[in-house]
Structure formats: structure tokens, C-alpha cells
Design a protein that fits this description.
The protein is about 50% helix and about 15% strand. It has about 475 residues and is α/β, with parallel strands linked by helices. The chain folds into four domains: about 150 residues, Rossmann fold (3-Layer(aba) Sandwich); about 90 residues, no CATH class; about 130 residues, Response regulator (Rossmann fold, 3-Layer(aba) Sandwich); about 70 residues, Winged helix-like DNA-binding domain superfamily/Winged helix DNA-binding domain (Arc Repressor Mutant, subunit A, Orthogonal Bundle), CATH 1.10.10. The strands form three sheets. Strands 2-1-3-4-5-6-7 form a seven-stranded mixed beta sheet, sandwiched between helices. A five-stranded parallel beta sheet has the order 9-8-10-11-12, sandwiched between helices. α8 packs antiparallel against α9. It is flat and about 80 Å long. About 5% of the residues have low confidence.
Amino acid sequence: MESPIRVFFVEDHPATVNGIRRTLEQSTQTRFEWAGDASNASDALHQISAFPPDIVLLDLGLPAQNHQSGLELLQRLRTFCPQVPVVIFSASASLATAADCIAKGAVGYLCKTISADRIVHFLVQAHREPKLKFVYIDDPEEQASPAAEVFSPLEMWITRGVLEEKSNDELTRHLLSNYHLFRDEFSRSLLQQLDEFNENPTNDALYRDLLDDAKNFIINRLAKNIYPKAKAGNRVGLILYALKWNFFPDFTYQRPSVATPTKPRPDAAPKVRLMIVEDHKATLAGLKADLNESGHIEVVATAENGLEAERYIFEHPNSLDVVLTDYKMPVMDGLELIKKIKLRHPHLKIVMLSVDNAVKVALHALGGGAVQYLVKDSSIEEIERAVVQSVKQSTSLSHIALENGALLSPDDLAVLSGVLNGESAAQIAHKRKEAPVQVEASIRRLKEIFGAKSLEGLAIAAYFALLKSRR
């Protein structure tokens, strides 16, 4: 008989603890054993370190005792008990929070609206296949699709394959080699064919039929399940979704090695006169202090939204060299501010700094006249370098310089934006009033610039090059 799965629960609400314990004890599908529970991070770490369970179910909203939150406990568990898989159990339906937890080592994220049978299902999955990540959320902002977003183990496996640029044929062959991991997700007809082939593995006709049906199964799973959950229309959209929410923290992208730009000497040129536009006061204060201390930059003005910035620039048109602006702000956002500046003050250079790592936002910013786009987890040295270098960059419908020295023209950006929106060459050509052959030539050029062999590879390369992500 299979050993019971020992579960330790970290949760400060006794009613929730009792409910989960009853759920596991009453499970008829799998045997569970209650390994213990704790209401704070300190007690949990002590008990789990002394007697490691098979799984830890962890609430994020723990009371702040000794300055240890649920997320901090997750990180400590990954350090001291790396062999124990941790599943987050949270009231938050934020996909960003889920992605952060997965990135920090959790094997899964369950929103507390989940049903009892699904809890059992995912705990079993975490125990059997801890390398396969899963996310279950119930997003109240998704009015058109109130159902929880669930990526099953097979769907996560297919998504990883797409991210690695595997063709449908390659995915099919790999799936059949690992079918034992996903039998419970196969269709009845595919299972029947598998059983028939296993009884007669030398029958080539059976194998060809099995390959065809397994490939159609993957294509249908992508179209009917995976793409809708990722709000994507094709492989490119799925790749961008998986990258944005960091589905696979171990995924790495090797960029071409480039020489580190030499920092200008303090006395080599006048300080860059900078305006910072940021609605978070703490971030604004930190940026101002750090950049002023760099020796190369003087922060001469700040604003908390685009409208304030526009008014200042109108009143002091020659007092600035560069504007460093956030994307999401009240009253007037960063993209609108870029339009206003480029219309009336084309000499000003603009760098956008945003928490949003969506490549489409980057393309809009760069296409609108910004010379660089950085995500907010960039180091202060990277931000300083971007501001200083921006003074030397052209901003008249700018060519965007990549780290490999290549330049992206406004036309390149427009075509790339269409590709990342899932548009075909014909659709892009119609929108741009060009011949499809011209757009196809632009796509080939973009592939050469980014060193990509496919549209999927182009999407991945563009994501990392344009967003300056450090993986």
C-alpha cells in the first residue's frame, strides 16, 4: 500500500486549519497524514526543519512575527528544506503575486476559493511531480471569464515546450516518450491507441496513427484550453504570457556578450539635467537621491504625474536634457506624456521606467519616441547608464540601439509590434498599406537582427532585448 502524503499547514486562522484537515482526512482518492500546523513563520520553520513533511501548504497572510511574512518563510524553507515542496494557499487572486511566489520557489499557488477536491488533486500532483508548476486563481477583474485560471501539469509542460521553440511534431514525440506522467489528462481515444501500440510496438502503421492523433491532441489542447487561459491567439502570445508571469523561473535566455559601456568621467561632460516623473513618493525620493549621488546626473525637477510634468516642461523648456518617466500614473500616464513631449519639445530625451514588463508597452514607448525602456527591478547603475547614454541617442522617430549594436527603425518597431500582437504578414501589410512581401522582408530582417529562426524565437529575443530583463 502506498504511504500517506504527510502535509504540514501554516495558517493563522483556526477555522481554515480545521477545514483543510477535515478535507484531507475525508479524502477517498488519496491517503493523507496530518504532519502538523503552525500559526506563524517562526514556529513553522522550527517544526518543519525538525520533522520534514512531504508537502507544506503555506498561507501568505501570516501575522508579522519577528518580521517574517509568509513570503519570507517560503524563501527560508527553500534554503533550509529545499527537498520539501511548498504550495501557497492565499486569499489573493493576483496573478502577479502568484508569479512572484513561483519565482521564489513555490511549486504551486492556490487561491482560497478553490474547491476541496481540487485541493486534493493539486497536493497529490505537487507530491508526485514537484518540478511541474501550477497556478489556480480566481480573478474578480476578469468579468468576461470569471472561472479560475488553471494550468494543469500537461498544459504547463506544453507551454514550456512552446517557450523552448519546440514544434508540434517535437512536442508530440516528447509527449509519447513521457506519456506515463500525463495519462490522466489524455483523451479516452488516445489512451486506447496508446494501449494498442504498447501491445504491438513494432507495428509502424499503429505508430503513425498514434503520432497523428497525439499531435492533433496537442493542437486542440493549445487552441481550446491553453491559449484561452493565457488570453493568447497563438504561440507568440503564449510565450509572452509565460515570460511576463515568470511561469518557469529556471528558463534562461543567453544574450550575445557585449562589452560593458565605460562610465563617463565626472569631469568629461556637464551633468545630465534630469526630471523624474513617478507617482510613488518613496520610489521618487529614492531615485532622486541615488541619481544625484551618481556624479553624472542632476535631478532638477520631479513630478507625480504626466500633467504636472507637462506643465513644468512648458514653463521651463530649456532646463532639462532627459525625462525619466513611469508608465502607470494618475491623471496622465507615461505614454501620453511621451506624445506630448515629442510633439512640443522634440529635443528632450525620454527614458521610460516601469513595473510593467509587457513587451507591447515597451514597443509603444519606444515607437512613440522614448529612447530606452527599463523595468523597475533594474539596478540604479543600469538606470544611471540609460539616462546618461540617452543624451547621445537620436529621438526623431528614433532608431533603437540593441546590445548587439543593431538598430531598430520605426518601421522595424511597427512590424515587430504587429508580430507580437499575433497578426499575420498580410494583416500587418494591410494596416501599414504596404505589400505583404515588404512586411515578410521586414520579418526576415528582424529574425536576423535578433538571431531568431522562428516567430517564437523572435518573440523571446525581443522580450529580453527590449525589456533589459536579467535572467
